[in-house]
Task: inverse folding
């Protein structure tokens, strides 16, 4: 049910959440009166906080304490009362551009580096999923003569992963090669490489393994069966990684210092999830945000009890997908206490997803 709040109640809810995020201490009317320009008396603030408590947006952990936000209070705060920080978004994008070396690193190293940067900036556990292997598409093929009767096939995907395979030609073909001049063989391999790139660029690796290689021009049919076998082998190599390595995780030690994680049992369940049960996390991280006409937000936000996965029911998970073109291939997420700096965290996740999307697409 939609909770209706007037402007004053919204302002006091905003101030209460802000104060609690900053201090981790229950909030009273006196603290709000002193620190925020609410323009009303302490009694008016107390009355408004009472209304917010009855609506289920605030609660008292003890009868003598101030109030703290409930999951529903955080939800209204996130959906209605804040705007992600453009400043933090620009800073994160700049850090990623300066510190990630796309020319020198493998894709896995790049994503783990990005996770480290985001964890340091956000103070949260950062989770970045590796691109799904079945999404990888051919970017470039090159055939190179290594020695008589042997060539190397180099395949580069659009996720910048490289596979190379030594290809032994059958005996009859090897004899033909031996009879040819090296310059002739190199020219033939370059022509074949150009032909394969023109025909196959943009296809998935799984498509390559099942192509009808008889459709190759007749002069290249001698390579057809061997190439089909090699591509099938490459596809087997690029099956999805084991669950323990599908997600780059950084920032665990920092976030577990937060007071919300003081109980050893809670820490152990989260660590077990991150280390042993990552497969359970994937559906929550790799989830498209529900966009509506009133929101341009490109993230999915699960707060506290909105997480059906028991170990993180006391946490907030903010995630977004990164894309190759229009196709989502992986995801970026931050996991922290519900007492989270949402303006910053949302901006960081959006900026990281945009950066990775642009980098992969270009």
Result:
């Amino acid at each position: 049910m939609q909770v209706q709040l007037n402007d004053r109640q919204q302002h006091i809810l905003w101030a209460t959440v802000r104060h609690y995020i900053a201090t981790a201490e229950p909030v009273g009317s006196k603290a709000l009166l002193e620190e925020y320009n609410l323009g009303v008396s302490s009694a008016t603030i107390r009355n408004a906080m009472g209304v917010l408590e009855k609506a289920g947006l605030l609660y008292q952990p003890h009868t003598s304490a101030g109030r703290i936000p409930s999951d529903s209070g955080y939800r209204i705060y996130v959906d209605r009362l804040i705007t992600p920080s453009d400043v933090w978004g620009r800073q994160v994008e700049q850090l990623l551009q300066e510190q990630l070396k796309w020319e020198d690193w493998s894709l896995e190293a790049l994503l783990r580096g990005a996770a480290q940067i985001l964890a340091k900036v956000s103070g949260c556990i950062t989770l970045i999923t590796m691109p799904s292997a079945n999404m990888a598409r051919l970017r470039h093929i090159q055939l190179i003569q290594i020695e008589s009767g042997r060539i190397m096939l180099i395949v580069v995907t659009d996720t910048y992963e490289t596979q190379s395979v030594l290809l032994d030609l059958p005996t009859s073909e090897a004899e033909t090669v031996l009879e040819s001049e090296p310059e002739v063989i190199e020219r033939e391999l370059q022509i074949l490489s150009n032909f394969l790139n023109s025909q196959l660029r943009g296809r998935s690796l799984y498509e390559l393994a099942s192509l009808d290689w008889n459709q190759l021009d007749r002069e290249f049919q001698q390579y057809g069966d061997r190439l089909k076998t090699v591509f099938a082998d490459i596809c087997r190599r690029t099956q999805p990684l084991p669950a323990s390595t599908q997600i780059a995780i950084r920032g665990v030690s920092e976030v577990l210092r937060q007071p919300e994680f003081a109980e050893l049992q809670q820490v152990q369940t989260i660590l077990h999830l991150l280390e042993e049960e990552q497969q359970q996390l994937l559906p929550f991280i790799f989830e498209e945000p529900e966009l509506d006409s009133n929101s341009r937000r490109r993230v999915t936000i699960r707060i506290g009890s909105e997480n059906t996965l028991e170990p993180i029911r006391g946490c907030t998970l903010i995630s977004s997908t990164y894309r190759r073109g229009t196709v989502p291939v992986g995801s970026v997420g931050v996991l922290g206490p519900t007492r989270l700096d949402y303006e910053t965290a949302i901006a960081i996740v959006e900026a990281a997803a945009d950066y990775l999307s642009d980098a992969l697409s270009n």
The mean pLDDT is 82.
